Amino acid sequence: MKFKSVGKDIRVSKPDPRFARLLLEQFGGANGELKAAMQYFTQAFSCKQPYPDKYDLLMDISIEEFSHLEIVGATIQMLLSGVSGDLKASADESEIMQTMNGKAAKESFMHEAMFNPQFAVLSGGGPTLTDSNGNPWTAAYVTANGDLTVDLRSNIAAESRAKIVYEYLMSFTDDPYVKETLRFLMTREVAHYQQFEAALNSIQPNFPPGVLQSDPRYSNLYFNMSDGVEIKGAWNEGQSTQLREEWQYVAEPLEKVKKSNGLTECEPEGTERTEKEVLQADKALAKERSEEIKQATPLKAIQWSTYGE
């Protein structure tokens, strides 16, 4: 059995209802293809005027994610071949039954199919918009904050999670054709990660996320909040990765809180940034982002699409 989608020939060696259930994670799960498609599609709307290049990127990847949803759905459908009419009718001559020898094999297959009863009693042997445990897909999976530096970071994280799910799924199937499909989908997550990362880097400055800068009194503090060995690393000593401030290791957080009246009377340490500079940066970046949007928004009737004469 095989199916073509977006130039990728997808196949399965034989039905496998057990793995079809697991694969539902990437169809209707929290890290699946529908979530990704809807997330990038939703995020794109606020980019249409001010950032048409990012609008194009988000729409392109969103549409590709819909094609991946088709690939996953088709793979699930092929893995469930026989669960629908053939299995219900117990047709011994059906394709799935011909791959099995004896009553025990048929009963084993039917048991696997019933392992997710929705396949038999709700969907009739097709994919459902749920995760592997039957939880329905929800828009709560989608994040769209209206700020590109935030949304692109969310997307990088989303691609990371989707990639690792495909990686885990590959260990649960021995079907070489299915493994090939999963490897293709996993690889596209890696590609999208890099595309979103490049888009984020094209927005400068892009740290911290959003517009407002961080308070220099607290931006480089590391609180030792656990008992035991005090571990030092790049996250609490040396310079911070973005602001290039010296990490201030607070070995006794409670004492510092008491001495500083709840951290309200402490001064910036290990940084050259001042509160005055932060306020100036806030205003400057807010003005820059505002001008970008104003320049991209015409002072006339707005038309979403344009058509050739």
Brief description of this entry?
The protein has 309 residues and is mainly α. It has 12 helices and 4 strands, in the order E-E-H-H-H-H-H-H-H-H-H-H-E-E-H-H.
Largest sheet: 2 strands, antiparallel
Low-confidence stretches: 85-94
**Class based on secondary structure composition and strand pairing:** mainly alpha
Provide the gyration radius in Å: 26 Å
Q: Secondary-structure element order, as H and E?
A: EEHHHHHHHHHHEEHH
What oligomeric assembly is this protein in? single chain
Inertia-based shape:
flat
Helical amount:
40-55%
- End-to-end CA span: 46 Å
Protein architecture, described:
It is a single chain. This protein has 309 residues and is mainly alpha-helical. It contains 12 helices and 4 strands. Residues 85-94 have low confidence and may be disordered.
Highlighted features:
single chain; 309 residues; mainly alpha; two-stranded parallel sheet; 5% strand; flat
Topology:
Blueprint: E1 2-5, E2 8-11, H1 17-23, H2 25-28, H3 33-44, H4 52-79, H5 85-89, H6 95-98, H7 102-114, H8 118-121, H9 148-169, H10 176-201, E3 221-223, E4 248-250, H11 253-259, H12 275-296
Parallel strand pairs: 3-4
Antiparallel strand pairs: 1-2
